[in-house]
Amino acid sequence: MSEFLQQLINGLSLGAIYALIALGYTMVYGVLRFINFAHSDVFMVGSFIGYYLGKIIPENTVWGGLAILLGAMLGCALLGMLIERLAYRRLRGGPTLNVLITAIGVALLLEYSGQVFFGATPRTFPSVFPSANFSFGSLVISSNQIIVIVVAALLMVALQLIVYRTKIGTAMRAVSLNPKAAQLVGVNNDVVISFTFGLGSALAGAGGILYALNYPSIDPLMGVMPGLKAFVAAVLGGIGNIPGAALGGLLLGTVETFVNGSQWSTYKDAIAFAILIIILLFRPAGLLGKFTVEKV
Amino acid sequence: MPRPHLYLLAALLAAAGLSHFSDRIDPYHLDVLTGIGINIILAVSLNLVNGYTGQFSLGHAGFMSVGAYLAAAVSLFLGPKILGAEGGTAVQQGFMFLAALVAGGLGAAFAGLVVGVPSLRLKGDYLALVTLGFGEIIRVIFQNVEFLGGALGLNGIPAYTSIFWVLAFVALAVFVVTCLVHSTYGRGFLATHDDEIASEAVGLNTTRYKIVAFVIGAFFAGTAGGLYGHFKMTITPTGFDFTKSIEIVVMVIMGGMGNTLGVILAAVLLTLLPELLRPVAEYRMIIYSLLLIVLMLARPQGLFNFKLGKAKS
Predict the structure, then answer these.
(1) Closest to B125 (Cβ–Cβ): which among A35, A106, A296?
(2) Neighbour-count burial for A62-87, b at 16+ CB within 10 Å, e otherwise
(3) How far is B148 from chain A (nearest CA, A)?
(4) Domains in chain B: how many in total?
């Protein structure tokens, strides 16, 4: 029983990170209807921003850790907006496949520039937050896991407030529902889409820091697998659906951790996709998505 | 195209002729040519699925790996039993290799059927994602099968692949795909691509077209995998990951979806590009990705697609 709880906690902290990355995918998909492959590399850049900030900001302090987190979020938000402005904006309204290939191009660009500028060898991420282990009976929870879960939960609540309680959030939902109609009632689509990219990328940046706290070896290709799995999580929950992305992330992280702890651990990279395929075959719109029939 | 069979015959003869002089060609150029040929087979076969039929598949490398492993297993495990310890004559080896390639292709086609039947109920991005998922699952399975070398892969595959085999299969793939889409039956692929609902309304079985495209595409991906394995003499599961699938998809899109000639040119260009950029090795992937972005921004209909306004999502 205690092992089950232990695995559950490990799984939730991994799942919370997947959820943060998945939110970025799902928001961009919501407004632009395409898979932003570069998102997983924005996540990687977030980790590296944290790594370099860790050299100037004193380690093992709560305020220093928060400053690094905010720095990475800000840096990633700017990067995401820059990518949107330079690469995606001109292709808006064109065939989705071209945007997809451009996104793949941006992803490759970030990965290989990372290998040239950051170096291809893995770096050790500094321990930015003070760390401790709390044990309850045989249950061990590290402070990093608590930080991950708390920060992720706070960010998700903040996102929910932004999307449902603010003017720009209303505009985001309007663009997602019908971009042309949104423009007709005076929404500036460019600003909204740019903001969506910034918001999603900031979450990816936070995800990058939180991921590196628990898996402190970072390299320029580190984003590929978590990114792919986070995207699976977004689809699992119903793409374009914000609570769905959070649910999908938590579910995926938990299942993966349990598989990793079993005799099937070498199959852990396949399990995410197996779940995805099964869910899509029975509920093609994802767990929380609405199924729409195509009209002629 | 009149008399396509004659073209195929001419291409096969040309391949045999070129292969006869292959020892006079610089080995490096021969290697690059082999790589180009394998990529053409992959791109042309994916073009049937992604371009002509409009089903966005991101799992082509998975089918390639099934073919590569099966063909290598045939050569490695059955080969010595059939050919004997000495390895047999060149002709015997040739038939052995052909059998291995066909086995690889059929295995991949079967995988295509198994993947295609459930996933083709999905559309667009969902289909792309499920095929990507299947590709990754196939890779993880190969990583875990001890019999096939696990994560280390298979080594010591006989180097049967010669320029003749590569060019012959390029010719065959181009022939089959071209004849298929230009046949009466094959118009159904284009119809499925253009408007699925309208095709169904006039009585086409679009599901069957999608599956046929998927299976034929997978068959040629499997033979390309077999050629690749017997060319590199070693295969590992990581060689067939999602990046490889993306590489093939990029060739198809750059060539202009559903344009066989363009796709061939794109495959040639994209295989040559990393070779040409070798002097600036450190920056070559950066240049590659930048070119990709710039091309998509500047020529969204594909680099080699000269029919304006034909690019469709």
Answers:
(1) A35
(2) eebbebbbebbbebbbebbbebbeeb
(3) 15
(4) 1
| Assigned domain for B221 exists | yes
ipTM for the whole complex: 0.82
The pair of structure tokens assigned to B16 is 């045999």
Of A101, A231, A296, nearest to B253 by CB-CB distance is A101
Is B130 among the domain residues?
Answer: yes
Give the structural domain span for B37.
26-242
- Residue A31 to residue A244: CA distance in whole angstroms: 16
pTM of the model: 0.85
Q: Could you count the other beta carbons within 10 Å of the beta carbon of residue B9? A: 13
pLDDT digits (tens, 9 = 90+) for A234-245: 888 888 788 888
**How does pLDDT run across A80-111, given as a tens digit for each residue?**
999 999 999 988 877 777 788 889 889 999 99
Which residues from chain A sit within 8 angstroms of residue B283, using beta carbons? Answer: 116
Residues in chain B: 313
Of B56, B122, B286, the CB nearest to A112: B286
Q: Which residue is listed with tokens 């086609």?
A: B109
B249 and A101: CB-CB below 8 Å?
yes
Residue B265 lies in a domain: no
**B118 in contact with A, Cβ within 8 Å:** yes
